[in-house]
Design brief:
With 252 residues, the chain is of the alpha+beta class. The chain is built from 10 helices and 8 strands. Strand 5 and strand 6 (198-203) form a beta hairpin.
């Protein structure tokens, strides 16, 4: 409504300006020069108003879209994950009291923090969901399928999962309630890393490495955070969708 009023007011200014410039009565009363100057000023004011109107319209549209994204919980977007935005993880890990993670093999996380797993377990609750490399069977596993999709050699994810389980054995043994791993018996749809009231997540796409996938930062308090954290909880708590890592045999 305000744009319509703005448009109408400035349209009237332009019309009056043009009418004034060609009005013999106005020229007779104030003189040709003054009448021409006043008319030109009115036309210029009207045109300036139109320019400002369109500028504000597009700015307001952009601001509305940004606000809608912010209201959903979105805070930032990155063109990669893992080592590509390593500092984003490191900064949040320092002050978190819990982390929840969904990944295939999490090789980068193991390589960066494997020697700190026991230390992390002393100060926070850690829950990890990895892909079960033996499901639905050894010869045709979801892990092997994902290796194919990412262009990796068969068995890459299986080796990463087994290496992660082995590297975390001390932390899980010494802090069994604080460091836990379950293995997914379904294909993860998103990569997920929650730190208390923030989380980093992104899709899994084909024909590229996981670390090159887009990643988004979401804050607690809006629907995206709730939906994604609920997704994790359902995977974690379902015995049909995940099992403790201790109950799964080693892959070939």
């Amino acid at each position: 409504m305000r744009y319509a009023i703005w448009f109408l007011v400035h349209l009237i200014l332009v019309i009056i300006g043009f009418m004034g410039a060609s009005s013999p009565l106005l020229v007779t009363i104030v003189g040709k020069d003054l009448a021409g100057g006043a008319s030109a000023s009115l036309v210029a004011a009207g045109i300036s108003g139109f320019v400002l109107l369109f500028h504000n319209f597009f700015i307001d549209s952009r601001e509305k879209k940004i606000n809608e994204l912010y209201d959903s919980g979105m805070r930032a977007a990155f063109d990669g994950r893992s080592i590509v935005i390593k500092s984003e993880y490191a900064t949040r890990l320092k002050s978190s009291s819990r982390i929840d993670v969904i990944g295939f093999g999490l090789s980068s996380f193991r390589e960066d923090y494997g020697d700190k797993f026991t230390l992390l377990a002393r100060s926070m609750k850690v829950r990890i969901l990895l892909l079960d490399p033996t499901f639905p069977n050894f010869d045709n596993s979801y892990a092997d399928q994902r290796d194919l999709e990412e262009g990796n050699s068969r068995g890459t994810i299986a080796r990463d999962v087994e290496a992660f389980i082995a590297r975390s054995s001390e932390a899980r043994a010494s802090h069994p309630n604080n460091f836990q791993i379950r293995l997914l018996r379904c294909l993860p749809s998103v990569n997920y890393f929650r730190f208390d009231n923030e989380l980093l997540w992104g899709p899994y796409l084909v024909a590229n490495q996981s670390r090159n996938m887009p990643t988004f930062l979401v804050a607690r308090g809006d629907f995206l955070f709730d939906r994604l954290s609920d997704h994790f909880e359902k995977l974690w708590n379902s015995d049909d969708l995940s099992v403790p890592c201790e109950s799964t045999p080693k892959s070939k």
